[in-house]
Amino acid sequence: MKPAPFAYESPASVDEALAALAGAGEEGKVLAGGQSLVPMLAFRLARPAVLVDVNGLEDELGGIEIAGGQVTIGAVARQRAVERAGLPLVSEALRLVGHPTIRNRGTVVGSICHADPAAELAAVALVLDATLEVRSRRGLREVPVEDLLLGPFTTSLEPDELALRLRLRPPAGWRWKVLEVSRRAFDFAIAGVVAGVGPDGTTGRVGVFGAAPRCYRVDGPVDELPELAVRRAEPTSDIHAEAGYRRHLVGVLARRALGALAGGGEVRA
Amino acid sequence: MRSITLRVNGRPVTAEVEPRMTLADFIRERAMLTGTHLGCEHGVCGACTVLLDGASVRSCLLFAVQADGREVTTVEGLARDGELHPLQRAFHVHHGLQCGFCTPGFLMALAELWPSRGLVGREEIEEVVSGQLCRCTGYAGILAAAYDAFGVA
Fold first, then answer.
1. pLDDT the model gives residue A269
2. What gap in Å lies between CA A117 and CA A232, rounded to an integer?
């Protein structure tokens, strides 16, 4: 339950971090909040030869900005800080992510890059048309989160790439609701949804987490969304729940969330 | 190996450490403060919770090198001049512990809220308590202690 030895790099700039990652080849790993990576190191599920700690890059990557209808979250902005920034949907979803102590260290960008199929934030990113600004010494690219998430804990990031910032594009006039079922408050979700209804009240989006190898999003008329969300589900069974129960939850939670948005009332999962 | 210096409960502690040494192990084996307990060593149980510059963290999920130059407060830093901290006294009065293994973590997680007492309600307390595991008390005594210490009904 102790991590295997690794070389530790604590770069003082993004350029230094990119050089460290390039130098590490396939053996490097970025350490941000560490709330998922360090347990994987402790279990030795991950054994990188080099850890590149980006926590010192607060000046370059610690920002949370709202401008022109776009929300930009830097790679080392803590979940607690984003939660307290009062952002629509994102702050509400963060209240369900981990425990307060975990959110003190965990980062929003780190959660997206970790690609946990049960991550609330990945589903939020999908419904808000998010893109990730990614850099390496080879260049800069803007990756839609839709193309980033490949499968469980697997992304399209290359070993030498560093995620710098997440850009969220909340559409104007939409209302949102996050619902999930978990064993304890703030625990990993067995399954959950991020539902949104547009200003016309008839079209919407649902992001789903915990019910497929990766988070996914469906768009369509509000009445059809629960069925569309269930059809896309590819749940698995584990100690917490059977696949059939997860699929059932997707439909129930989508209906409740959309119903709450239609009625304007509060509901509990 | 790296030479690092942390302030632990106001006292500078310098040591040569491997990068893989967790903050929890540094506290126990270099600062020689064994009040910080290690349960699961992967961030679930909360027994190792300490304050880093006033914010609660799982000390098993942080490497000691990451805390170089920073201020760490452990459960040994709560009592002053032989007087228990009000949170500790409340745990004593309300039987907020049985075996005591989880207690340092509960105290430090709640200690993060202490500067905001007066603004803290049941919801904030319950949110914090839900992040810590206790297998003895059933949490009733812990919650009673916390409500009392924070003065919430």
1. 43
2. 14
B116 and B93 Cβ atoms separated by less than 8 Å: no
Q: Does the CB of B143 have a partner CB in chain A at under 8 Å?
A: no
| Dist. CA B28–CA A196, nearest whole Å | 48
Hey, which CATH number is domain A7-53, 1.10.10.10, 3.30.43.10, 3.40.50.2300, 3.90.640.10? 3.30.43.10
Angle between helices A225-232 and A243-263 (to 10 degrees): 160
Quick one: CA dihedral B48, A119, A82, A144, positive or negative?
Answer: positive
Answer yes or no: CATH 3.10.20.30 is held by domain B2-76.
Answer: yes
Sign of CA dihedral B110, B113, B118, B123: negative
* Distance of residue B42 Cα from the nearest chain A Cα, in angstroms: 5
Give the residue from chain B lying closest to A105, CA to CA. B57
Q: Where are the beta strands (DSSP E) in B53-139?
A: 55-58, 71-73
- A186 and B130 in contact by Cβ < 8 A? yes
Report the DSSP pairing between strands A203-209 and A216-221.
antiparallel
- Residue B16, beta-bridge partner list: B3
Closest alpha carbon to B51 in B85, B83, B17: B85
Q: Which CATH class is domain B86-150?
A: mainly alpha
Complex ipTM: 0.96
Query: Can you give the pTM of this predicted structure?
Result: 0.95
Residues of chain B with pLDDT under 50: none
Q: How far is A46 from chain B (nearest CA, A)?
A: 13
Residue of chain A nearest B43, judged by CA positions: A39
**A239: number of Cβ within 10 Å:** 5
Report domain A175-263's class: alpha beta
Assess B113–A contact: CB distance below 8 Å, yes or no. no
pLDDT in tens, A44-90: 999 999 999 999 999 999 999 999 999 999 999 999 999 999 998 99
The answer to whether A117 and A214 have CB atoms below 8 angstroms apart is yes
Domain definitions of chain B by residue range: 2-76, 86-150
Q: Does residue B45 belong to the interface with chain A, where contact is any CB pair within 8 Å?
A: no
> Domain extents for chain A?
7-53, 58-168, 175-263
CB B73 within 8 A of CB B11: no
Q: Which of B2, B25, B130 sits opposite A184 (nearest CB)?
A: B130
